[in-house]
Amino acid sequence: MSKGLDILENIDGLPSESKFEPKLESRQLWGKIFAAFCIFATSLGLIILAFLIYDVVSDAAPRLNLDLLQNYPSRRPLESGYKAAILGSIWMLAYVLLLVVPLGVSSAIYLEEYAKKSWLSELIELNIYNLAGIPSIIYGLLGLGLFVRGLYSGRAVLVTGILTITLLILPPVIVISREAIRAVPQSVRQASYGVGATKWQTIRYHVLPAALPGILTAVIISTSRGIGETAPIVVLGAGTVLFDPKASLINFGALFSGRMGDVFTDTLWSNDNFFSVLPYQIYEWVGDPKPEFQTLASAGIVVLLLLVLGMNLVAIFLRNRFQ
């Protein structure tokens, strides 16, 4: 035992004090400097954000009323509103969630739990990671060629916007959901297998509940990003509309009256179901030279901020609820 202590005390013939100098004072000083820098950076970001929000809200204050939510766009700024754009954003959000959740979570489960390591699976993973970092305008060009021109002969209808935004946010959902599933300890899986559970039972009853907070956060935050995108919608060719978008999957009136040929008339799939969303309408009015329309654009920014903030609050609540 004494021989071991002698070795620790003397390395290469030098006393231990020359090898292990704690330097506590300097390390504590650098720790305080780093903490002060982090506080400064955070405070600076919050101050800038508060200033921007104050500037937007103060500009939007004259138009923050119910008419903003109830009126359609108009050439007269005092009579204009965001009703059509708000409904377009809400319906787009609803259908994007219906597509993204099953596709994104299922893909993440397959890639993380079922896919065998091979050159094909590695190629798929590499492409998904690359797609998650592609600028949104590229997805707008893809949607323009694939959906607008390929499916609807150049008509930018609501379903083309839904499919484009779904493609935009699907890769981030898959990537973050995989990380949430991967974070579940292997001991949970081994314990489930030890009592005779199958792989699907292990995933359903143990892995997914443990990964659910991360998956929900991925879905909500990615969808918040998608619903605030302007570039893809502009590239698709969406415009200002003066009517509510059609959101029904089928025409129930035609179905119940026996007119089977009109089941998909005046529905989500109609080739005249043109749409607008909040980011696009804001983009249209923020460039208008009239100050009244710029005030209207500021009011739309406030509405969009509240919508995105509400979605993020839902993500935080769900994450804390299921954690």
How would you concisely characterize the structure shown here?
By secondary structure, this protein is mostly helical.
Element layout with pairings:
Layout: H1 2-9, E1 10-11, E2 14-15, H2 16-19, H3 24-60, H4 66-70, H5 83-114, H6 119-132, H7 136-151, H8 158-182, H9 186-194, H10 199-227, H11 231-236, H12 252-256, H13 278-286, H14 291-322
Antiparallel strand pairs: 1-2
Helix pairs in contact: 3-14, 5-8, 5-10, 5-13, 6-8, 7-8, 8-10, 9-10, 10-14, 13-14
Give the strand order, joined by hyphens, for the main sheet.
Answer: 1-2
* Helix proportion range: over 70%
The CATH C-level class name: Mainly Alpha
Q: Do you know the CATH topology?
A: MetI-like fold
CATH architecture: Orthogonal Bundle
- Structure annotation, total helices: 14
Beta strand count? 2
Morphology call: globular
Order of helices and strands: HEEHHHHHHHHHHHHH
Biggest sheet character? 2 strands, antiparallel
Question: What class do helices, strands and sheet pairing give?
Answer: mainly alpha
Specify Rg, calculated over alpha carbons. Answer: 27 Å
In whole angstroms, the N-to-C terminal distance is: 49 Å
CATH homologous superfamily designation: MetI-like
Percent of residues in β-strands: under 5%
Number of domains: 1
- Rounded average pLDDT: 84
Unreliable stretches: none
Question: Can you give a write-up of this model?
Answer:
The protein has a two-stranded antiparallel ribbon. Helix 3 (24-60) packs across helix 14, helix 5 runs antiparallel to helix 10 (199-227) and helix 5 packs across helix 13. The mean pLDDT is 84. It has 323 residues and is mostly helical. The protein is built from 14 helices and two strands; from the N terminus they run H-E-E-H-H-H-H-H-H-H-H-H-H-H-H-H. It has one domain (82-322): MetI-like (MetI-like fold), CATH 1.10.3720. A hairpin with a 2-residue loop joins strand 1 and strand 2.
